[in-house]
Amino acid sequence: MVRTSIPQDKVLSKSKISKAINYALNHQQGLCEYLNDGYLPMTNSLDERTIRPFTVGRKNWLFSTSVKGAESSATAYSIIETAKANNLDPYKYLSYIFKYLPCEDITNKDILNSFMPWNDKIQKECK
Q1: Which domain holds residue 23?
Q2: What distance lies between CA 44 and its chain's CA centroid?
Q3: Rounded distance, CA 51 to CA 42, Å?
Q4: Whose CB among 8, 58, 91, 93 lies 3.0–4.6 Å from 83's, allowing a Cys bridge?
Q5: For the chain, how far is it from start to end, CA to CA, in angstroms?
Q6: What percent of the chain clears pLDDT 70, i.e. is strictly above it?
Q7: pLDDT above 70 for 1
């Protein structure tokens, strides 16, 4: 990969612009990878928006009264975000699993897989 000429000697080595230039030069291949693959986005905005609820939740979990409470919150966030990622209505999905899953043997992997958001039946029921 060809490096462009940047006047690094014209900026102070400890300045923020120098750090930015060095970061860009050291990560040039990764930063330009989207040019080689048209399916890669130029930004990670979608990823940032997807994990935002976890970031907000993480701040709220500081005030959880127990580790189990924080773990339960994280589990709920994970289920809801996975439903969203599979184009389901989270309310419908949660209603469905709360209605039918307690009656099932969740140690059976086939039964548990039938409740996953990507399952065809779930996709039909919870859109």
Answers
A1: 11-42
A2: 10
A3: 18
A4: 93
A5: 46
A6: 87
A7: no
